[in-house]
Amino acid sequence: MAAGIAHELNTPLGIILGYTQLLEEDLEGQEEVYEMLKKIESQARLCKRIVKGLLKFAREEEKKTLTEIDLNQLIDEVLSLVEHTLAMDFIEVVRRYDPNLPKIKGDPEKLKQVFMNLITNAQHAIGEKGKIYITTRYDPEKGEIIAAVADTGCGIPPEIQDKIFEPFFTTKGEGKGTGLGLAVVKAILEEHGASIEFQSPVEDETLGEAGKGTVFIIRFPVKNTSKGGEKDG
């Protein structure tokens, strides 16, 4: 997570610094304004140092925590934490697990965060009475594992579909969300060499109910052939 946010902050901070320095050159004789610009530059440089520290920390943590993961089991662990609230909203979870998934290498806590976020988003999109479909699938020809979370909820409006992975973008009211959820999901997956895409409404009926809701599709590259996972649901 730290690495993803740090990378996203680096670019705007670089732009702020660049334009501040240009303005300093143009306004060097105007002492009051010039001093304000120097303060802006100083604080922007401080932010850059913080970002650099976050990136270093993230790299060190990544080296420490990579383990072999049974993805089916990991998703079940996440579901065990939310099954009560899903049941209260009359939301049924449909598991479509491939029992022959190779294990992947990664940080289990970060990947739990990914699936917790996607499942929670699906719950919010449904509100009450609906289904969440969770699919895992191994494609040996492409050398990848697909993990998908689909819902029968309200879907994502077309006008915001190109913004949902942007940091700080949220459709929730003020004080009800940071807008970092999907940005962090994307960043964590990129750390694992994985990608994420979505369909809204669902197009692939093997992943959910075609014409309804949204499905997020994760693709993990597979570099080994060790098998794991259990058939479920």
Short description:
The chain is 46% helix and 20% strand. The chain is α+β, with helices and mostly antiparallel strands and 233 residues long.
CATH superfamily of the largest domain: Histidine kinase-like ATPase, C-terminal domain
Beta percentage is 15-25%
The radius of gyration computed from the alpha-carbon positions, rounded to a whole number of angstroms, is: 21 Å
* Terminal Cα span: 31 Å
Per CATH, what is the topology of the largest domain?
Heat Shock Protein 90
The total of helices stands at 5
Order of SSEs: HHEHEEEHEEHEEE
CATH architecture title of the largest domain: 2-Layer Sandwich
- Domain module tally: 2
CATH class wording of the largest domain? Alpha Beta
Quaternary state of the chains: single chain
Helix coverage percent of residues?
40-55%
